[in-house]
Structure formats: structure tokens, C-alpha cells
Amino acid sequence: MKFFPAMVAMMIGVLPVTPQAQERLAVGSKSFTESYILAEIMSQLLEAAGFEVDRKFGFGGTLVCYQALVNGEIDVYPEYTGTISETILNLNGSPGAAEVDARLAALGLQTLSPIGFNNTYAIATSAATAARLQLKTISDLRAHPGLVFGFSHEFRDRTDGWPGLADAYGLDRATRGIEHGLAYRAIADGSIDVTDAYSTDGDIQRHKLVILGDNLQFFPRYDALPLAMRSLPQAAVAQLEQLADRIDDARMRELNSQVVVGKQDIAWVASAFLVEAGLSAGTEPIADNAWRRLTRNIVRHLQLTVVAVLLACLLGLPAGVLVHRSAVASGGVLYVAGLLQTIPSIALLALMIPLFGVGVLPAIVALFLYSLLPILRSTTTALNSIDPVLRRVAAGMGLTSTQQVRHVILPLAMPNVLAGIRTAAIISIGTATLAAFIGAGGLGEPIVTGLALNDTNLILQGAVPAALLALATELVFELIERRLVPVHLR
Amino acid sequence: MRLPRIRKQHAILNGPTVDRGVAPVRMPEQTAAAVFDSVSKSFDGRPVLSRISLEFPVNAVIAIVGESGSGKSTLLEHINGLHRPDSGTVSVLGQPIDYSNLVRLRRQIGYAVQSVGLFPHLSAGTNTELLPRLAGWDAQRIADRRQWLMQLLELDAELAARFPQQLSGGQQQRFGLCRAMMLEPALLLLDEPFSGVDPITRQGIHQRFLRLQNEEPTTVVLVTHDLREARKLAQYLVIIRGGYIVQWGPTQELIANPADDYVSTLFREHLQ
């Protein structure tokens, strides 16, 4: 198994990238707007100090991002204190800063100073209602039993959500469940008065909502800060420390709003912020050429799928022959390959992380595993469906075993085998769009970013080329079949 | 019709025309083309052939006749080594079969089965050329041989370009024969080669087969369940039932003197 990653790396010509030179740093982000913005701000700040920055944005979830950091794929990414203690370190209650720091140090990690805002659950109401009833804090709600509370389903169930909140504040009343995406509109049309929100949500401003103060400090703190390797160069640490206390809740809401509501470019929003905060001279953010980005994504997408499918052929074709020959092997191998197929793709990708880290390698391994079954099964079917009379004739007429395979078995099996490889390729192209969640890039990258930013345009920039790629693949296989399969077997 | 005749070279007499430094095999004249000595064979514990002893005379047509499941195809497939006896020996062309070098043996034996025997992914012509090409024949020799066989079997030259599916059943069978005859085999094994076509077509193929046999006498072992066909084509009959040989000998002798009730009933029902 050991040579496997090395072989994959050789085939794609890129070894797992660890930043070696001091000047080169990789900044990561999770796949939601705020994380993108903070990561971009950090990137530009580092660039202003002369570092060369790899932007590896859009990792699908905390654990993926954290793995990337531990594996050295990235050097720093924006994280939240509550997430660090609960999700990453699995600490219950509210551990002290000292304990958290010690645990992180043991992992080779460090936190820098908090950036200034706390993105936690919050209770929001419309600005008009707040003004009319003089509402400033959550405690103020107690005096107004007539207000309708509508909360997201998750918030209604979590102990650190409504049940705990009601307990802490003595708010004993019925609530309505409502889809989070619809809650703000429901407030606007007056069907509910109060809902849960994230304190830095960019939509809060758009819908003219206000956040009621958590005067009893019920909600855990989710203070944003850079989470970094301990090996992060001192100059980089100094540069990022400039962000300390620079962005408060309102400011973060505004930045989020500029991207989500104002549809402004993240690089531009980040740059404007840095200039305004006096942290950068306002170098023009390097515009990423759309065509270059598209080409890069397509090339990476092809790398992922082609390498994975080729490897699957390398293993699947001989394994298919083996399965065809031995009833015992056939049971076991097909069972395992079938089992692999049932693992949801996103889960399989996640399972790869502890084994292969994040990036291209685990994506290729996952795609490879997915491609195995169709290739294996079609090879076995192809061989099983060859008329035994033809096999007997081929042997009986005096062809050597090699000649039987070359002139009879292979050409007769070809259509079915090709169909299997074709299926594997098409599945891989589709599944590879999910590889962006573990930082493998490809056409999934604009899709993931677009989903996070609610940017249909961006989603299409990934989805359309991916669909075209699938079509082109069909076409290529059509041509291959035309060349390899005689008319009368098609 | 007088056909241009290519001088027949018996592979066994002139040494193999083919392959890599194999010493020529000399066969004493007048020997049987194949000899079964007390051959038994079972599949999964079920006996298929029981103590078969037989001689196949040189340059005669020998028909193996029996009901389906009687073991007649299995018997045939012992001659080209597709099966190996559990006990007893099979000798072909004067020597016990060398199971470590079956390819050499098989290239001296033509083999045709029903019509499905043609490879569907190759044109009829390529089907016939495959083996001689792999055996190292030059293109001219292959072309001449094929042309001669096709004329004898009354196959139009243009048919060679077609794929098996584009040919009629009768044409497929004739190409199957043609392919089996390409390497000028000393022995020809035919497993129900003329079944599955209508009686008229069948008559025609029988005519051509006899003509071929007349032009180029070869030891032919023919498996069939059709006694009329056997009587018409074969000088010798082997009657097999449940893996045992019930009776064998010259065709006319058998018809005149059936060994037991089974044989006489068989003749009465199928030959009246």
C-alpha cells in the first residue's frame, strides 16, 4: 500500500504539496462566506508583507480544514473559539484559554489574537419592533408575552439553543418551527416577531433586523481568530496579529452583507477593508483571470478522473479476469467493490482524510474506489457472456492461450469492458466535483464556493463545464468503440 | 467442373508446416488416424465415457451416432485434447497425445462445430485466414488455399468480406468447413456441423462435403444425431449410448447386422 500514494503522485506529477520555502504560505478556509472573507483578508495581509500565498479555500467542514492544517497542507485558516474547544478538541463546558492553548500546542498548533467579533447564535427581531417596544436585550422579551417566536428546527432542539435559553432567561412560552431561510421574510411580513440568527449574518442588515444583547451570556462564544501551525514564520504571525480586535460584529455583518447582498467580489471587499483599516496600501488585488481559472479547474478535474480511472483499470481488469475464473474470488471481490459503492461519496471522501490527508491524493483514491466496481463487474460480465462454444473452438482449432485471448476473447469482451470503463469515467467526472470539499480543486471548486456564497453564476462556472466534460467523455468513448468494436457486435 | 488443384501436402508426412523448430512427425503408413485404448472419463463423478476402445481408419469418414447426452461430443473432444481421459490413452496420428503441446497437435486437426463456430467479430474471410496466418503461412499460399476451398464449397468470393451474421446458415456452415480445412489437416473433427439448416440446404452441403472429401481425402470424425446423414457420408459407424460403445464397424455391415435391439430399433426408426 505504501507505494500507492507515491505512484499516484508520480502519475499526476505533483507530490503532496507542503510549503517548503519560507516565503510561500498556504491559507485555508471553510466553505461559507465569512470564512472566505477572513481567509482572503489574511491572504492579502500576508502578501502585503511579501509572502507568496496559496489560497486553498472552501474545505468542506471543520474537520477537513483542521486535517489540512495538521497535515501541513495549509499554514493558517480562520476558526472560532467555540469550534476549537467543542469540535476539534472535544472539550465540554467552557474550558479556560490556558487549557485550550496547551492542547493545541501538543498538536503543533497555535491560536493568534481574536479578530474582534463573536459569531454565535443570536436572537433577532425587526428594527421597528425593537424601537416600538424598547427592546435591547433578550431579558427585555420577558415583558412582552404577545410576541411570536419562530425558531429554526435545529435551534429549537439543541440544549444550547432554545431550551437552555428559555431556562436561563425564564422565557416560558410556545415557539414555532420555521426554516431558517424563511425566518427573516416571516419577520418582514409579521407572521413571527423573533427568531434565531447568527450574530454576523450579512442578511441581518438587509432585512433591517437588530440583534438583542445576550446580557446573561448564555450563548457560548465563537470568537473568530486565526488558527495556525506553530511553525508559522514570526513575520507572518506579526502581520496577522495586526487583525486583533479590528472587526467587530457590526463590521463583520457589513462585510458579509457586501458579498452576499451586494454581490461584490471577495478579493475586492477584503482589499477595501484592509485599506480602510490602514493595514495595506491598497495594492490592486490580483484579478484571477476567468479563463485561466476555468482551464486550471478543467485540467485538475481531468487529472483527478483520468488518473483514478486508469488506476481502476489497472486493478479492475485483472481482478475482473480473476473473478471470472474463480467462484470464491468472485463472491468476495464483488462484495467488497459493491460495499464501496454504497458509501456516500462525501462520506468516502471524508474517510480518506485520516489515511491520505486532504488534497489531490485522497480524492484520487476515493474516485479510484468508486471506479472499481463498474470496471470489475463489466469485465466479469464480458468474460462470462462469451459463448463457450467459441472458446472451445478457439482452443480446439489450435490457437495458443495468448492467441485465444488476443484474437478471440479480448475482441469479444471489448464492448462490455468499454461500457464499464465508460460508466466509471462518467461517475468519476460527476463525483470529482465533490473533491473540492477536501481541497482537491477541480470544477467542484466554483460549485462549492458558489453554494457558499449563494452565487448561481459561480455554480454554473463549475456545473456547466463538468456537464460538458461528461458529454465530451461520452463522445470520446463513442469514437473509441467505433474503432475497437466491429460493427456487428455493437 | 475441373478445379485448379493445389497439391495437397499432408502435414504429418512432410513435417509440420509451422511452428518453431518442432521435429517432423513420421507416421507409419496404414495406421489408424486415432486410437482410443480403454478410455474412461467422468464429469463431477458422473461417468460420460466408459472403457472406450476404438480405431479410426485413415482417410475414412467415421460417424459417431447417439442420442444427446450419450457422450458422442465428449468422445470427439478427446481427439484434439479438449478433454483428457481419466484412464486409458488416446493416440492421434501414431502417437499418444502430448498434453503439454496441444497446439502442435491441434494444428494438424481441423475442427468445426455447428454454425456458431465462426467468430462473430471477424469477417468470414478473416475467420478462415486467422489460423494459417498465425501458423506463419505467406499471404499468397493462404489466398490460394482459401480460393480453392471456397470454389469447392461453392462459396462466392465476395462472401468472404461479410460477417457471419450476414451469411445464411448454409453459408456459415460451409465457411466453418473451409476454416477447418485451411491448414490441410490430416484429421477433421466435425461436431454436428450440418445441423440447424433446412433439408434442401443440407443436401447441398452434403454434396459439397463429399466432393471435398473426394478431392482431398482426409480422416473425418463426424458427430451427428442424424442416422441418415451418417449413412450417406460415413464409411464407418460408431454407435454410442450412455457412454458405452454399443456397436461399431463399416456402415453397411452394421445396418445388415445390428448387434442388439437398441441398434436395430434405431435403424428401423430412422432409416426406414
Can you walk me through this structure?
- The complex is a heterodimer of chains A (490) and B (272).
- Chain A is mainly alpha-helical and 490 residues long.
- In chain A, 58% of the residues lie in helices and 10% in strands.
- In chain A, the strands form four sheets. Chain A has a three-stranded antiparallel sheet. A three-stranded antiparallel sheet of chain A has the order 8-5-9.
- In chain A, strand 1 (24-30), helix 2 and strand 2 form a beta-alpha-beta unit.
- The longest helix of chain A is centred in the middle third of the chain and has 36 residues, at 290-325.
- The two termini of chain A are 39 Å apart.
- Chain B is an alpha/beta fold.
- Chain B is 35% helix and 23% strand.
- In chain B, helix 4 crosses helix 5, helix 4 (124-134) packs parallel to helix 6 and helix 6 runs parallel beside helix 7 (199-215).
- The radius of gyration of chain B is 18 Å and the shape is globular.
- Chain B starts with 10 loop residues before the first helix and ends with a helix.
- Chain A binds chain B through residues 387, 389-390, 392-400, 403, 407-408, 411-412, 486-489, and chain B through 77, 80, 82, 102-107, 109-114, 116-117, 119-122, 130-131, 134-135, 163-166, 179-180, 183, 189.
Regions with little confidence, pLDDT below 50 for 5+ residues of chain A:
13-21
The coarse overall form of chain A would be elongated
Alpha carbon gap, first and last residue of chain B: 34 Å
Mean pLDDT of chain A: 86
Report the count of strand segments of chain A. 10
